[in-house]
């Protein structure tokens, strides 16, 4: 996982720096003789006390069986800006190996899927999902999305709340969703770690975890934290209380990171050092400061987004994305300059004060300004039709004459989404070397009538609208009315 | 006083629509809904009504010609159930008038709460909607899907005195509005139905069980009958005690007389059967809303002649009463002969979703014509408005929409919207926000000056 890889990288850079230091300033022999530094055997900390050494909850995901396959004849939206007519997409070993026009050579030994008249896109990625943590049925006993007991719960991890049997995963898969970022809720300033999942049926969350995906930290601006805690007579109860809460936490996190850095530096030098006590809350926040964990920030209002960008600058981290960024159209040039993504719905508006200025053209205006835009769901219904959400957002732009093409708009639910959750090098577009996460649509996916017919993850068929063998059911659905069938 | 002044100035700020005129919409695919589509035709509006529809209709002298350029003309869409005009910002309690506290039950009348200056009325029109049933929710417990899990923070921000006691048994009376810009009163009809919930939310309203809910509903209807029969005695205090107040009993009298339907929100197949039995036993008219497991009892619903209002997106086992929810519920109900209306999203001010919901139902097996009827003529009929609106028939009121393509498709939008023959303004608060920020400006002044 990137987190561990980066940690290792940091450690090795640290080691390099130290050895360079050692070669340039070798202490004179006399000094060593005079007072040897307290050399101790660098003993590894007991298991669980060193965040960098922790094995965490590693992914056990294994791609399902697949065969080399060539999809022939479809209109292909690559999510790299191309729309290819009568295209060819070839997958092998779980990866895309070729994408091109009708004259793309097809090896003799691959399975050919005739997709004439169909459309092919990368698998849909929902960057804002609560599947598993707020599953169906929505009963109190399974309401595991918000650890609403303290405004800072950076220490909790969404993956420990995911119920892999949530029937919602099956519905989302039938809508072409192959990857999801599952987030904690927005009751808290710091909600906890997100987890990125492959949308495969699995008995365990580890079996769904997207290998090497970075973690995200859910943060929340605005009305929710101050309402939740203000109503309990606690801070924050105001927007300024929110900002104090963030800054206070980052100060503590920076201090914690420094203490560990000092400790590791001493250990590297072979000096005696006491390890700081591991703190899961500060460890996650420090992970953000180190750049290993991506900030996924629920933030509706343009002015609050600008404040959050300033806080990030004050403490030297980066906001990767604003979610529910309903007002990003107001400050799109700033977001483009700062390189912050905006994830938004297409047409929800006015359901709370901070969403009162929501407009359909939000995504298109952000796109026009050259900033990164993503269409997300935050909803187990919308996640099933992110293609239509993108279509509504695209249409709002075209109503304004912006000329948003399908080749561009498809990125809002695939390539940009992947980039936004740190897996843009692995999936999100149809390019050689990327994961063969593929959806075959019955027709133009931007049409209300489109159905995802076949869905592949890492080259393996995981859903087929016309083959009951590839329509998995959750354990919960067995023996229930409808037996888990929904279309 | 301040409120009325504000309303007046808001009305002035928006462009008022032109007066009724003679309009000929030409070069259009016309979907009258009541009859087969006309692939290329003309529709004439005169004196606020539809004067002519057909393939070979002449443009009257002096008529303003609207060239549809091959687009589609439909009746204005009808929202089958909404909170439009009765709720502005669902998370702001002060702006919610779509439910009552425990002071009233059946007598709550949403018609008094309609605000014609709601900023979401122009937005609904932008989705092709020209009229809407406005239906109350049970306070404190939702009624439609009135809770938003915004990142899982459940907002129980329904109207009325939430938390001030048990929610009432009945949600109150529904109204019907027409989305005429600038009109001082947009309420077309009121006291059209009395809303009630069966199943989980109905049970919650009465302390926890469906058993209590149905007993109390039946008892209330019995009381209303007795009240109607012995009105004079009641006024003299010479009847037994009734479970509901005088106002609530009065509101139920047209229900027990079969004049006004009960709008029953219900999900589970067994509860739908109870609703049908209630209607048969009490000889009352009912409309069913929700009916996620309706497909399982579709022939029974059809046999009872009961219309339904469905949300075709509902395919999750979201609760223990909707475990059988399916995307093809509307298609299966229709195939069994049930009259099906399709709803938009009650929440998020997203009635624009209604036409796309019809498209979704079509994508899942509902015939196209039934999909279009489900958002026009069927809801008009359910709410008793089909004598005036709901289809493009000569003599009907000219609530008409010209679309640049298939009205059920994501990539289409309304080009012209007529209500009562008057073309409606295209702008809304949302388009004004959009246009302010879509402009680039190097004046050195902030957007507030644009």
UniProtKB/TrEMBL annotation, chain A:
The keyword Transmembrane does not apply. Residues 1-22 form the signal peptide. GO terms for molecular function: hydrolase activity, acting on carbon-nitrogen (but not peptide) bonds. It holds the Pfam family Amidohydro_3. Residues 354-463 form the Amidohydrolase domain. Keywords: Hydrolase, Signal. This is Amidohydrolase, imidazolonepropionase. It comes from Caulobacter vibrioides OR37.
